[in-house]
């Protein structure tokens, strides 16, 4: 977040998005006039006297719309948004809960005011609002008498000019090149077909079930019919708000779909004195609200910033903006009988007030609001281009997939049947049973000299760790609670260390025997010491992991993929980077120690197959990182099939690792159950190594 360049300037910098105003000159006039009004009206305010405001990229405050405000917040967060924008953006906003009197803000529309809260904390103050109107030339008598509450968007296409002086070539001009405009037009059009306003989430299924193709094709026909470049649909992205407005000015279209904030400019200027406006069909429009937030990292005194924010969102300045620029205040018009300021606004702006009272508002946050919905910022960033792409290529399935992804996770989608879920269990169970059989056989032949020298008890523990790894996808596939995330974190530590530590224990045992200069080695004492170190080390790592998981780390869900592909939730966390770093360094240190012990024991390690431990741990590390990477790049088409294939391959590789570790020795034991000396011990004696030490290694 940018900070003010210099506190001594007494200048408060405000960041705002691109304006909806129809010209750059109008925007510049708006900024200049607002600054002058702020300075004049606060000349006697001792707290902020001498401060100026400036609209800048280097900011102390920011004006954002409701689609951006808390747009990153969702139960299943977006990795796409995290990578491109960040997460928990509200942590950069100053918490106003205890800084302002909420009673003094009661003039705001209650719903708009409540949207400035997150988790009962106030971060944003309503700044202004806006909605759509259809502008037309009032000399068209056919339009003047239209009851917009009863007609549909499709009915707009059949309206003819009622004036011989107009030669409009198409019915409606829309700024389809603007992503927000395209998205909102699509939602308003669909609302005319089925109620998706958020009051009934089930109705949203009509956008990705069998009936969705009818809605899509109808919308495409509507867009093509309202597009001034319908002969070249690929130029759809070129239609700006100015292009759309100019089409009305030149009598090329009957209607121009603009904003209510354009009303004053379009209907009251001398050049536009024959332009009128109506609400969109069904009196329904997406309602957009802009909010003012304060940068919590600003160097300016917090009290000054709060006071400036209150002034910039006050009734007085909202009335001024309405009078000078036609901006729509965030007033609750139901209070006009008890609040003279609101009454004054209603009387001076009777047309807009009438529109507001008739309006059936749509809120995009309500439309895309269920437990597993994608964050609105991701929807806003990606869905418009998907709609635009559909209008060009007509691919119903692609758009249906995107719209379903906005609401549902991968395993909840209509196209993912229960049979593939069952198929996931089959390979895991098969390979887990294979590992269990190997464990049983190792236990059975644990006293065979060809296997005993390989420390069968520790070998069993390593294979048990690999087995837990094989079955881990069963826990990861459908994660639905933070508690499960915490469990999985500890579970991963258990199977990782349960695989690694026994290998280190065996290596250390052989190293100790090999380098012990005494001929009288107490094997039981050595084993007891190794088992004690193993148990203590494993318990310490598990306790460390459990404390980190349940007491320190803040887990949250983040979707792998996007609405364009699929959304598969993954457990992730923050505020714990140092803890994970410590755990990884410990494991890496153990790797290094094990490699060192194996190298210094030389030919004995090679004879006993200890180098297999190095290879096993090396491949386990590669498999872990490779598996996570592959999951992140699986194609969206037939994702589950590819995911299943990945699980099978991972299970096969783990099983091959088990075979590589102990398979040949186990097969020899099965074929030669009564052998007492499977190789010549004397070959191992070198460098003053005694028979007693070799016997100890066998035990």
UniProtKB/TrEMBL annotation:
Its membrane topology: Multi-pass membrane protein
A GO MF term: G protein-coupled receptor activity
A Pfam family assignment: 7tm_3
InterPro entries referenced in this protein's UniProt entry, alphabetically: GPCR_3_C (IPR017978)
Domain of life: Eukaryota
Signal sequence segment: none
Subcellular location: Membrane
Keyword presence, Transmembrane: yes
PROSITE patterns in the cross-refs: G_PROTEIN_RECEP_F3_4
Annotated Gene Ontology cellular component terms: membrane
Domain G-protein coupled receptors family 3 profile: 420-614
Keyword annotations from UniProtKB, A to Z: Membrane, Transmembrane, Transmembrane helix
Stretches that traverse the bilayer: 422-443, 455-475, 487-511, 531-557, 589-606, 613-634, 640-662
Protein name: G-protein coupled receptors family 3 profile domain-containing protein
Organism whose genome encodes this protein: Neocallimastix californiae
């Amino acid at each position: 977040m940018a900070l003010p360049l210099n506190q001594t300037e007494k200048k408060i910098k405000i960041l705002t998005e691109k304006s909806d105003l129809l010209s750059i000159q109008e925007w510049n006039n708006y900024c200049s006039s607002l600054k002058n009004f702020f300075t004049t009206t606060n000349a006697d305010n001792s707290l902020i006297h001498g401060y100026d405001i400036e609209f800048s990229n280097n900011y102390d405050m920011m004006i954002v719309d409701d689609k951006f405000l808390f747009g990153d917040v969702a139960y299943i967060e977006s990795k796409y948004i995290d990578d491109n924008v960040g997460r928990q953006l509200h942590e950069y906003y100053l918490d106003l809960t205890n800084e302002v009197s909420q009673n003094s803000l009661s003039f705001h529309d209650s719903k708009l005011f409540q949207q400035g809260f997150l988790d009962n904390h106030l971060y944003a103050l309503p700044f202004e609002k806006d909605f759509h109107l259809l502008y037309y030339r009032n000399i068209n008598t056919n339009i003047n008498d239209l009851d917009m509450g009863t007609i549909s968007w499709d009915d707009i296409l059949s309206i003819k000019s009622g004036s011989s002086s107009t030669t409009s070539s198409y019915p409606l001009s829309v700024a389809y090149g603007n992503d927000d405009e395209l998205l909102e037009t699509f939602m308003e059009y669909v609302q005319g077909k089925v109620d998706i306003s958020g009051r009934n989430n089930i109705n949203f299924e009509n956008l990705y079930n069998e009936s969705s193709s009818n809605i899509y094709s109808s919308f495409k026909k509507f867009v093509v019919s309202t597009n001034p470049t319908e002969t070249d649909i690929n130029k759809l992205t070129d239609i700006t708000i100015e292009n759309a407005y100019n089409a009305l000015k030149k009598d090329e279209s009957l209607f121009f779909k603009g904003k209510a904030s354009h009303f004053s400019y379009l209907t009251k200027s001398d050049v536009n004195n024959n332009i009128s406006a109506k609400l969109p069909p069904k009196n329904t429009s997406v309602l957009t609200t802009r909010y003012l937030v304060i940068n919590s990292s600003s160097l300016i005194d917090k009290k000054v910033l709060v006071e400036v924010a209150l002034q910039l969102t006050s009734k007085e300045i909202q009335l001024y903006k309405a009078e000078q620029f036609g901006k729509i205040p965030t007033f609750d018009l139901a209070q006009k009988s008890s609040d003279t300021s609101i009454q004054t606004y209603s009387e001076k702006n009777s047309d807009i007030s009438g529109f507001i009272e008739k309006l059936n508002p749509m809120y995009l946050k309500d439309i895309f609001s269920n437990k597993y919905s994608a964050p609105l910022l991701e929807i806003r960033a990606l869905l418009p281009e998907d709609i635009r792409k559909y209008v060009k290529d007509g691919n119903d399935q692609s758009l249906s997939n995107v719209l379903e992804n906005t609401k549902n996770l991968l395993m909840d989608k209509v196209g993912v049947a229960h049979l593939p879920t069952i198929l996931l269990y089959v390979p895991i169970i098969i390979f887990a049973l294979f590992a269990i059989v190997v464990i049983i056989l190792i236990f059975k032949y644990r006293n065979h000299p060809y296997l005993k020298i390989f420390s069968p008890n520790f070998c069993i523990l390593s294979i048990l760790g690999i087995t837990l790894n094989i079955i881990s996808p069963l826990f990861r596939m459908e994660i639905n609670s933070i508690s499960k995330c915490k469990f999985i974190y500890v579970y991963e530590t258990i199977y990782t260390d349960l695989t690694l530590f026994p290998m280190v224990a065996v290596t250390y045992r052989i190293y100790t025997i090999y380098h012990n200069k005494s001929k009288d080695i107490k094997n039981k004492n050595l084993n007891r010491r190794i088992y004690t170190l193993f148990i203590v080390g494993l318990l310490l790592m598990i306790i460390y992991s459990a404390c980190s998981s349940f007491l320190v780390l803040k887990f949250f869900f983040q979707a792998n993929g996007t609405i364009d592909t699929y959304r598969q939730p993954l457990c992730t966390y923050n505020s714990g980077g140092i803890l994970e770093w410590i755990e990884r360094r410990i494991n890496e240190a153990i790797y290094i120690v094990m490699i060192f012990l194996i190298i210094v024991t030389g030919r004995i390690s090679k004879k006993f197959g200890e180098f297999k431990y190095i290879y096993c741990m090396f491949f386990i590390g590669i498999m872990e990182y490779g598996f996570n990477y592959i999951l992140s790049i699986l194609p969206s088409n037939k994702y589950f099939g590819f995911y299943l294939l990945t699980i099978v391959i991972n299970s096969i590789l783990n099983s091959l690792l088990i075979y590589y570790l102990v398979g040949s020795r186990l097969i020899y034991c099965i074929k030669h159950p009564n052998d007492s000396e499977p190789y010549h011990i004397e070959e191992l004696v070198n460098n003053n190594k005694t028979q007693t030490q070799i016997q100890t290694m066998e035990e």
